[in-house]
Each structure stands twice: as structure tokens, then as C-alpha cells.
Amino acid sequence: MLNTHKLGEIGENLAIKFLEKNGYKILERNFRSKFGEIDIIAQDKNTLVFVEVKTRLNNKFGLAEEAITPWKIEKIIKAGEYYKLLHPKLPESLRIDAVCLNFSPFGNLEKIEIFKNISG
Fold this sequence. Notes:
With about 120 residues, the chain is of the alpha+beta class. The protein has a single domain (about 5-115), classed as Trna Endonuclease, Chain: A, domain 1, CATH 3.40.1350.10. The protein is built from 2 helices and 5 strands; from the N terminus they run αβββαββ. It has helices at about 5-20, 70-85; strands spanning about 25-35, 35-45, 45-55, 95-105, 110-115. A 5-stranded mixed sheet has the order 1-2-3-4-5. The termini are far apart.
């Protein structure tokens, strides 16, 4: 049985592969600041993208994409603005995407999807 930390790590690894396959360049992973955490920081063409990864083993508490709250988006915005201050040479254009992974109870990946620009 997977614990939530291990499941999250598996989800992030799969999300990175999925993002790279879709043309994203991964810049950083698990950025932490006093403002919050960003799972993946990437560049998609000329846009700096802050990526939230949500992974679910079953639908007991809803789909992965349903777990991203306005409060969480606000935390990502604040952490992203701070990250941009630390890296002024990165693109000016910013957005928040989500990669959502839904697994079957048996551990098979049923769906992986990118939701672009979830904050706006």
C-alpha cells in the first residue's frame, strides 16, 4: 500500500515526463518558500509556468482536479511571485497549470491531464 507522500512522488515523476513530452522545460521541483510550495516550475515557450500536481488513487474524495482550491491557487500565486523576484531573467509571462493524475485502486494510471491557466 502506498502512503500519500510516496504516491505524490510517483505522481510528480510522471507529471514531469508528461510535461516534457508536451514541450515544457523543467526548471525546478518542489520549490519551498515562506509563501508556500510549488511542485514544479517549468517554461512553456516564453511563459514561466508554476505547476500544481494532484494525484488520486481512487475517487473516494473526488477526482484529482477537484482538490485544487482557490486557497491553494492563492498560495501558488504568492510563491510564484516570490520565485520570479529571485529569478528576474526568466520570462515575464506567468501562468499556473495543474497536472492531475487519477489511478485505479489497483495502481494503474487511468488518466493524466494538463489544465492550463487555472488561476485565470
